[in-house]
Design a protein that fits this description.
The protein has about 375 residues and is an alpha/beta fold. It is about 40% helix and about 15% strand. The protein has 2 domains: about 130 residues, Aspartate Aminotransferase, domain 1 (Alpha-Beta Complex), CATH 3.90.1150.10; about 240 residues, Aspartate Aminotransferase, domain 2, CATH 3.40.640. A 7-stranded mixed beta sheet has the order 2-8-7-6-5-3-4, with helices on both faces. A 3-stranded antiparallel beta sheet has the order 9-10-12. A two-stranded parallel ribbon has the order 1-11. Helix 1 runs antiparallel to helix 8 and helix 4 packs parallel to helix 5. The structure holds pyridoxal-5'-phosphate. Pyridoxal-5'-phosphate binds next to helix 4.
Length: about 375
């Protein structure tokens, strides 16, 4: 049976070109980027080339990119790093503003920071998942350190208005951080035009390797490190750099292109249109400002888990929530925040495509799905 992988928001297949670029950094160019001999310099040059590519993609300076182990670490580093710098320097600032629809690695960092004395505001969103900009503006006080708002949501695909949020933050004199793991290379992201001060990125959502990411930190912003050691990455993130991973990350960014985004938009819209032909279905998230690869739909009266299970018997991998939340039985905090009652939340399926998705895969999915939904609804005790 052919596999149809529709869970690209969880992770993506490494591009063959990315893998090819990485391989020599395991076997031939295996130097430590901190070593001053030529083997070390070889590794350092490759790493710096990647840093340059990533910085350019964001409109940032090369030195403003810090390599990390991924999105989780970058988000932790941004928020904990800023909070503890303010604490150490007795600035009197202890307030963080975020939203109710962040990835767990932001929300759980914030919950932990609250136990360390931080005050956190969790902003509401509307039914499409957009942040209330008035509430944001009103929430900023003279104690606010940073506003941290996810760019493209990992569950419902809503893309926030970075320009407007960035302008509010700049006007009010607070820092603006965004988690751009899902949106990077898929939609416009520019640190200058959007007034971004810190940006979280990772590699495995864009056909690069797992376990590597980056944090953009605007020049002049001070944060304390989480890792103490040899002072790698401008003393902000100690630890021997994952050179092969970083090389792969750079390559993945380098080969990302608009054509693939346009292809995904077409297939995404075909999927949405086809799925919504099934009675009693509802699209969650933004109608227009939506990630090119995200489809999130609720099917009344049946469980998302059951649909996903039946789809798997046809070789199709989908998800019912974010991969990180799927091992818990709790209903999605994102769907709750957009006002979906628990019964609807539990009947939700996330389909996330990639540049490798084909029209044939989409057609096959749209052929098998209605029958599965009909069968499950027939079996369902809820009518
Ligand atoms: C929006 C978002 N932020 C952060 C992460 C965590 O990134 P990583 O898996 O690289 O730690 C993910 C991926 O699961 C994500 O989708």
């Amino acid at each position: 049976m052919k596999t149809i992988y529709f869970d690209n928001a969880a992770t993506t297949r490494v591009d063959d070109e990315v893998l090819k670029t990485m391989l020599p950094y395991f076997t031939e160019n295996y130097g430590n980027a901190s070593s001053i001999h030529f083997k070390g310099q070889e590794a350092k040059d490759a790493m710096e080339k990647s840093r340059k590519i990533i910085a350019k993609a964001l409109g940032a300076k090369t030195e403003e990119i810090i390599f990390t182990s991924g999105g989780t670490e970058s988000n932790n580093l941004a928020l904990k790093g800023l909070f503890f710098w303010n604490k150490e320097n007795n600035t009197g600032k202890d307030h963080i503003i975020t939203t109710k629809i962040e990835h767990d690695c932001i929300l759980n960092t914030c919950k932990w920071l609250e136990r360390q004395g931080a005050k956190v505001t969790y902003l509401d969103v509307d039914e499409e998942g957009f942040v209330d900009l008035n509430q944001l503006e009103k929430s900023i006080t003279d104690k606010t350190i940073v506003v941290s708002i996810i760019h493209g949501n990992n569950e419902i695909g809503t893309i926030q208005d970075m320009e407007k949020i960035g302008n509010i933050c700049r006007k009010k004199g607070v820092l603006f951080h965004t988690d751009a793991c899902q949106s990077f290379t898929k939609t416009f992201l520019d640190v200058k035009k959007q007034n971004l001060d810190l940006v979280t990125l990772n590699s495995h959502k864009i056909h690069g390797p797992k376990g590597v990411g980056a944090l953009y930190i605007r020049e002049g912003i001070k944060i304390v490190p989480l890792m103490h050691g040899g002072g790698h990455e401008r003393k902000i993130r100690s630890g021997t750099e994952n050179v092969s991973g970083i090389v792969g990350f750079g390559k993945a960014v380098d080969i990302a292109n608009k054509k693939n985004v346009e292809k995904m938009i077409k297939l995404r819209d075909k999927l949405i249109e086809g799925i919504l032909k099934i009675p009693k279905t509802r699209l969650n998230g933004a109608k227009e400002k939506r990630l090119c690869n995200n489809i999130n739909v609720s099917f009344s009266n049946i469980e998302g888990e059951s649909i996903s299970g039946y789809l798997e018997t046809h070789g199709i991998c989908t998800s019912t929530g974010s991969a990180c939340a799927s091992h818990s039985l709790e209903t999605s905090h994102v769907l709750k925040a957009i006002g979906l009652p628990p019964v609807q939340s539990n009947s939700t399926l996330r389909i996330s495509i990639s540049k490798y998705t084909t029209e044939e895969e989409v057609d096959y999915f749209l052929k098998v799905l209605p029958g599965i939904v009909e069968k499950l609804r027939r079996m369902s005790p809820i009518k």
